[in-house]
Write a structure and sequence with these properties.
With 553 residues, the protein is an alpha/beta fold. It contains 18 helices and 28 strands. The strands form seven sheets. Strands 8-11-12-13-14-15-18-22 form an eight-stranded parallel sheet. It has a seven-stranded mixed sheet with strand order 3-2-7-23-24-25-26, with helices on one face. The mean pLDDT is 95. The structure holds zinc ion.
Length: 553
């Protein structure tokens, strides 16, 4: 038995806020304290430390195929850096698009123990799981993309029985070993292929004539009826377009009160006011989230510097390609399933637009009241590489630091933002909600994100330092399933993570039209689509964990 003793525990899932208590671990699980504080076989003295469950990133592009394109496109991102050393390109490195190994190591070193890939094309699921299987230590899971695929759009255009949509959604989750469903620019990627360059929420798309609103309604309904814990994960229409705040609000309403998660909402919170026709819509978005209990969002904060953007949204990425830095980009397609665009980008604090994007993200964090419904992401690598999280935590926790930074950005952007007037500072308890308890809850991971007996022993001990960036950058101890994997910010032991999935019940009669569709249009035969559990293990997953669905079908 392991005893993690003397630390101050933050476990918001159970209302535990900075309580001094010991945590006991046996066989990879947290266990009740033995009588009279018995010593463990192994003891870690955590006096002066903060203890939290392992952090969970619910939206990070670490293995959906696009990352491989990003890696190939930016060899300059894969330089071994070091003071006074010639920068050499080498494997096992990378900043904006790290290698699989680097991604697993860097996450574990920061105290993250589970990461979720949000853009897995069903036709590319096998490759995505191989890539994630090659990412060590952390647990993984993925959301399968639907909403621009011809099979679904045909069902909706033909006003098919909602049961068919539901069965198709369940079949997709099962066949692709996914944990949830994501809709990217619903209908818009398909519309792009028919030469549309924009698509509003109530605009019928060319060819199928289906509106984004109808797609969102059908998918949120299917997931609710199947009882899938994670709501529809939505990258809304008009990403990055000034004035898109209206389509973002319409997207929230399209869920008709059912649960919906809006991802990287910072990129969807723009007004079109002022001389530059670009303004913050953060107050309207935060107010809408505060009012609608069915809505959750992650921010997709931008941080300044070089990164690469990788998205299923071909329409938006084609639009962004003129901003590529360095000047190279890719838009491509696989099986007409969804889309893919990879565009390198450098966010500059002296650019009015970039500086205001930075401020808008912070406004959303600070104006949404409920930390259970707003999540800490940079949409890695789109807003910034995930290694910027400790810096972002400090921006949220330390008003002085935030205002110092605000004074350095483009002065017109600073003046156009309310960030400087917002007093709020996040507490450690709120950070623990936002990065542990809430993501576990919204993903349906009952034994993660908390520290009660029975939970997986994913535990982090941080030295309690006033510099929160330094604190969160380099935890003292990181345990994954009860094994010490990182010490003072360095990996000390490499393990394999599990894969989190759902497998809701469905009526197999959907396989007949699907088989006909695959025979007629796809290059992969229907029988070769489903990925079985054995394959998942062969490609590096430790085990496939199936989370229950509370379906009422
Ligand atoms: Zn994303």
């Amino acid at each position: 038995m392991i005893r993690i003793k003397g630390g101050k525990v933050y476990d918001p899932a159970h209302g535990v806020d900075a309580e001094l208590r010991d945590v006991y671990v046996r066989d990879g699980r947290i266990v009740p304290a033995p009588a009279a504080g018995a010593p463990g076989d192994e003891e870690y003295d955590c006096t002066g430390m903060v203890i939290m469950a392992g952090a969970i990133d619910l939206h990070t592009h670490i293995g959906g195929g696009k990352v491989n394109i990003a890696r190939a496109m930016l060899p300059e991102d894969h330089r071994a850096t070091g003071v006074g050393r010639t920068a050499l390109t080498r494997s096992g490195s990378g900043h904006a698009a790290p290698s699989t190994f680097s991604a697993g190591y860097r996450y574990a070193e920061m105290g993250y123990t589970a990461c979720f890939e949000p853009a897995m094309l069903p036709s590319n699921a096998r490759q995505a799981h191989m890539e994630m299987g090659d990412t060590p230590i952390v647990d993984k899971g993925a959301y399968a993309l639907l909403g621009n695929d011809d099979f679904l759009l045909r069902l909706l255009a033909g006003k098919s029985d909602p049961a068919m949509v539901r069965n198709y959604v369940a079949w997709t989750l099962s066949a692709t070993q996914a944990l949830g469903i994501k809709a990217v620019n619903p209908g818009g990627i398909s519309a792009f292929k028919f030469n549309a360059r924009k698509l509003d929420v109530d605009e019928p798309a060319p060819h199928y004539g289906v509106t984004p609103r109808a797609i969102l309604a059908a998918l949120t309904r299917a997931l609710q009826e199947l009882g899938v814990p994670h709501p529809l994960h939505v990258h809304a229409s008009n990403l990055g377009v000034p004035g898109n705040v209206d389509s973002t609000l319409a997207t929230m309403d399209a869920a008709e009160g059912r649960p919906i998660h809006l991802t990287h909402i910072q990129f969807h919170s723009y007004g079109a006011e002022g001389d530059r026709k670009f303004s913050s819509g953060a107050a309207r978005i935060a107010e809408a989230i505060n009012r609608r209990r069915n809505v959750t969002a992650d921010v997709g904060q931008i941080l300044f510097g070089q990164t690469i953007t990788a998205s299923g949204d071909s329409m938006a990425q084609y639009r962004n390609s003129r901003l590529a830095h360095p000047n190279k980009w890719v838009c491509m397609d696989i099986e007409c399933d969804a889309g893919c665009g990879v565009v390198p980008f450098r966010y500059r604090d002296q650019s009015f637009v970039n500086a205001l994007q930075w401020a808008i993200g912070l406004e959303i964090f600070l104006l949404v009241d409920d930390p259970w419904r707003v999540f800490l992401t940079t949409d890695h690598p789109n807003g910034a590489p995930f290694t910027g999280y400790p810096h972002l935590v400090r921006l949220l926790m330390d008003r002085g630091f935030r205002n110092d930074r605000l004074a350095q950005i483009h002065p017109d952007a600073a003046a156009a933002s309310t960030v400087g007037r917002i007093q709020r500072e996040y507490s450690l308890y709120e950070i623990a909600i936002m990065t542990r308890a809430a993501p576990a809850r919204i993903l349906g991971l009952a034994d993660r994100g908390h520290l009660a007996a029975g939970a997986a022993a994913d535990i982090v001990a941080y030295l309690d330092q006033p510099d929160r960036e330094a604190m969160f950058m380099q935890p003292e101890y990181v345990f994954k399933d009860g094994q010490l994997v990182a010490r003072r910010g360095r990996v000390v032991h490499v393990t394999r993570g599990a894969t989190h999935t759902v497998k809701p019940e469905f009526d197999r009669s959907i396989e007949r039209p699907l088989r006909e569709f695959f025979d007629r249009y796809q290059t992969v035969s229907f029988d070769n689509v489903p990925i079985d559990g054995g394959e998942m293990i062969d490609c590096g997953s430790r085990e496939v964990l199936v989370h229950p669905c509370a379906g009422r079908t």
